[in-house]
C-alpha cells in the first residue's frame, strides 16, 4: 500500500510538471494568436480594396487575354497545401488534409474551371487527372511525401509572421507555371479563421482568377467582420485610368494572386495558433482533472492505512487487557 501511495505521488508530480508546460504553451499561443488575428484583419482590408479596383475594371477584366485569366480544360492541377511545421494544435492539420483528400478522391469540383459565368467541365477521367503539390509547412510536406506525391516546392518559413515579400517566391512559382500552361488550374488548401473556436478548412481556386471566387471570398470576409459588402458601392465609382484600364489590370492581377496567397497563409496561421491554444487549454484542464482524481485516490489509500493502523493498535490493546 505504501508503494501504491508513492507511485500516485510520483504521477501527481509528473502530471503537475506537464500541466505547467501546457499552460505556458497556451499563454504563448494566445499571444501569438492575437498578433496573427490583427495581421489577418489588416490584409482583409487590403483585399477588399483590391477587389474594389477590380470591380471598377470589370469590362477590361472580361476582355483581357492576360495569361492569368485564360480558362483551359482541366487536365493537370497544382495544389498549394498550407499546414503547420509542428503538431500540438488539435485537428488543425488533420482537417485541411482530410478536406484535400476528399476532393482528390472525388475531383468533380476540381475538374471545373470558371471565370464569371463561364465554366469549362473537363472530360478527362478522374483517374487520369494529374496533381502536383506545393507544400507550405512540414506537416503537409510529410503527409504528401509519405504518399509519394509529386512535390515541386516546399516552404517552411511562413508559419509565423511572414511578410508579403516572403510569399512572392511562392507566388512567382504559381504564376509562371500557370502562364506557361504547365497547369490548367491552381488551388490553395488552407484553414479559414472564423473565431477562436471555429476554423474551417477550405479549397479555393487561385488560378485562373475567378470573379466568382473573389466575390465569395470578400463576402465571407465581410460576414466575419460583421460589415456590409462594399463592392456594390465601389462599383459605381467612375475612374479615369491612364494609360489604359487593360494595362492597369495586367499590373494588378499578379499582385492580386500574391495577396490571395498571403491572405490564405495568414488565415491559416491565425487558425493554427487558435487551435494550439485550445488544445493546450484542454490538455491543462485534463491534467488538472487527473491530478484531482489521483489526489482523491491518494487520500483514500492514506485514510485506509490510518484506519488499519488504528484497528491494529486497538486490537493489540484489547489483547493485552
Task: Kindly list the characteristics that best describe this protein.
321 residues, alpha/beta, Pyruvate Kinase, Chain: A, domain 1, 5-stranded mixed β-sheet, 8 helices, elongated
Alpha-carbon distance between the termini? Answer: 30 Å
What's the SSE pattern? HHEHEEEHEHEEHHH
| Main β-sheet description | 5 strands, mixed
Note the total helix count. 8
CATH architecture: 3-Layer(aba) Sandwich
How many discrete domains?
Answer: 1
Would you tell me the structural class of the helices and strands? alpha/beta
Per the CATH scheme, the topology name is: Pyruvate Kinase, Chain: A, domain 1
Radius of gyration: 28 Å
Helix content: 55-70%
Beta percentage is 5-15%
What is the CATH homology-level superfamily? ATP synthase, F1 complex, gamma subunit
Supply the CATH class.
Answer: Alpha Beta
How does this model look, in words?
Helices cover 60% and strands 14% of the residues. The chain is elongated, with a radius of gyration of 28 Å. The longest helix is centred in the last third of the chain and has 76 residues. It is built from eight helices and seven strands. A hairpin with a 2-residue loop joins strand 2 and strand 3. Strands 5-4-1-6-7 form a five-stranded mixed beta sheet, with helices on both faces. A two-stranded antiparallel ribbon has the order 2-3. The protein has one domain: ATP synthase, F1 complex, gamma subunit (Pyruvate Kinase, Chain: A, domain 1), CATH 3.40.1380. It is of the alpha/beta class and 321 residues long. Helix 1 runs antiparallel to helix 8.
Amino acid at each position: 500500500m505504501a508503494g501504491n501511495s508513492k507511485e500516485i505521488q510520483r504521477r501527481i508530480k509528473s502530471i503537475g510538471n506537464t500541466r505547467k508546460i501546457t499552460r505556458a504553451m497556451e499563454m504563448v499561443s494566445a499571444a501569438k494568436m492575437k498578433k496573427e488575428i490583427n495581421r489577418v484583419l489588416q490584409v482583409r482590408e487590403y483585399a477588399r480594396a483590391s477587389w474594389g479596383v477590380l470591380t471598377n475594371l470589370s469590362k477590361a477584366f472580361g476582355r483581357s487575354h492576360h495569361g492569368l485569366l485564360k480558362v483551359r480544360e482541366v487536365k493537370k492541377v497544382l495544389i498549394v497545401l498550407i499546414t503547420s511545421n509542428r503538431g500540438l494544435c488539435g485537428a488543425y492539420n488533420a482537417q485541411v488534409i482530410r478536406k484535400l483528400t476528399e476532393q482528390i478522391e472525388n475531383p468533380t469540383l476540381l475538374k471545373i474551371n470558371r471565370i464569371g459565368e463561364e465554366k469549362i467541365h473537363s472530360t478527362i477521367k478522374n483517374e487520369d487527372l494529374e496533381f502536383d503539390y506545393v507544400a507550405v509547412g512540414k506537416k503537409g510536406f510529410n503527409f504528401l511525401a509519405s504518399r509519394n506525391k509529386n512535390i515541386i516546392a516546399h516552404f517552411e518559413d511562413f508559419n509565423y509572421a511572414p511578410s508579403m515579400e516572403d510569399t512572392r517566391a511562392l507566388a512567382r512559382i504559381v504564376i509562371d507555371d500557370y502562364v506557361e500552361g504547365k497547369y490548367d488550374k491552381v488551388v490553395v488548401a488552407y484553414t479559414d479563421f472564423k473565431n477562436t473556436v471555429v476554423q474551417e478548412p477550405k479549397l479555393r481556386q487561385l488560378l485562373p482568377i475567378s470573379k466568382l471566387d473573389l466575390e465569395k471570398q470578400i463576402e465571407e470576409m465581410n460576414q466575419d467582420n460583421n460589415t456590409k459588402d462594399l463592392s456594390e458601392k465601389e462599383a459605381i465609382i467612375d475612374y479615369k485610368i491612364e494609360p489604359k484600364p487593360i494595362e492597369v489590370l495586367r499590373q494588378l492581377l499578379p499582385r492580386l494572386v500574391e495577396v490571395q496567397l498571403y491572405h490564405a497563409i495568414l488565415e491559416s496561421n491565425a487558425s493554427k495558433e487558435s487551435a494550439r491554444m485550445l488544445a493546450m487549454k484542454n490538455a491543462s484542464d485534463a491534467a488538472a482533472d487527473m491530478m484531482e482524481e489521483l489526489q482523491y485516490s491518494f487520500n483514500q489509500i492514506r485514510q485506509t492505512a490510518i484506519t488499519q493502523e488504528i484497528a491494529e493498535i486497538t486490537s493489540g490493546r484489547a489483547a493485552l487487557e
